[in-house]
């Protein structure tokens, strides 16, 4: 059985027409004799719409409530995708969190994978050509739905590939791959054809939305290559995330929350508390300045720190990180109002000399 693992993100499903194009592309893969494990995430904005509605009903819902709710966005995306495949007469089924064999711990909204039994996937693939898996969700030992965190559909896809022993995991998005900076923020960006796991993890932890850091870590650990591809037109390959490639990149994290503490000791306590629950952040402490930037967004960090008796000031700044080819990194905290122009300038400087992508290009 030749199995391919693909993940289509929310940006793939902007309209009905997009569903049809994706479905006919997948049908083409099936026609070539492949079986497809297809991870699907929520429609654009769906996850945050669910969260916002819930918070308007109760600003402090329990973790259990959030984990029961948030992955529904991906479940709906998966159902629409399945409907589009059925229209193409593809033999398709779905494995929901309770059926998938993906077992996590019970840390709400950041559940970690403990075990992945590939039997349900293999069995389903024997009788169907495509098995749809809603992203980001799993079950704990008690059988409850668990959420693996923001943008964790990428992690679901890599975990599916690892469990099935498939060495490539294809992740489709509205950009064909990893660029030297977010092409929707910065002009003149360059496509990075190859990037190492470690460089991609650094980018992601600094707030680059293009790939989920947990998924790259998991891919590295299990020897899965992530192949980034465009989710429309020719579905071309843009970037391979694997063993090689150290490009120069600029990451402006417009979801970052920059915090300032009254004293260094307070900041150190915050660093310990955030590290304990594996929230991505960058320590920006300098002599006389106790700051840190929580990256990747959507985590209510102020509330979490309040619960830990810490009350930092939230600054009107974002984190911008500059990774150079020589391995050096510079971090900046520009004011929100000028962050974009500032980052454009940094990117222009990084790419002012030809050949910055060097051997990575
Ligand atoms: N360095 C980068 N290279 C490419 N895309 C980036 C980069 N940094 C951020 N992005 C953003 O990541 C987006 C794709 O991620 P996402 O919106 O999560 O897609 P999907 O919904 O397909 O998972 C792109 O539209 C782009 O704006
Ligand atoms: N529910 C997920 C959906 C997801 O992972 O989205 P995407 O594939 O667009 O990153 C989230 O937003 O966290």
TrEMBL record:
SUPFAM superfamilies: Carbamate kinase-like
Listed InterPro entries: AceGlu_kinase-like_sf, Asp/Glu/Uridylate_kinase
GO CC terms: cytosol
Domain Aspartate/glutamate/uridylate kinase: 3-228
One GO MF term attached to the UniProt entry: aspartate kinase activity
Enzyme Commission numbers on file: 2.7.2.4
Record's keyword terms, sorted: ATP-binding, Kinase, Nucleotide-binding, Transferase
GO BP: any one term: lysine biosynthetic process via diaminopimelate
Annotated catalysed reactions: L-aspartate + ATP = 4-phospho-L-aspartate + ADP
UniProt family annotation: Belongs to the aspartokinase family.
Listed name of the protein: aspartate kinase
Species assigned in the record: Cystobacter fuscus (strain ATCC 25194 / DSM 2262 / NBRC 100088 / M29)
Lineage, broadest ranks: Bacteria, Pseudomonadati, Myxococcota, Myxococcia, Myxococcales
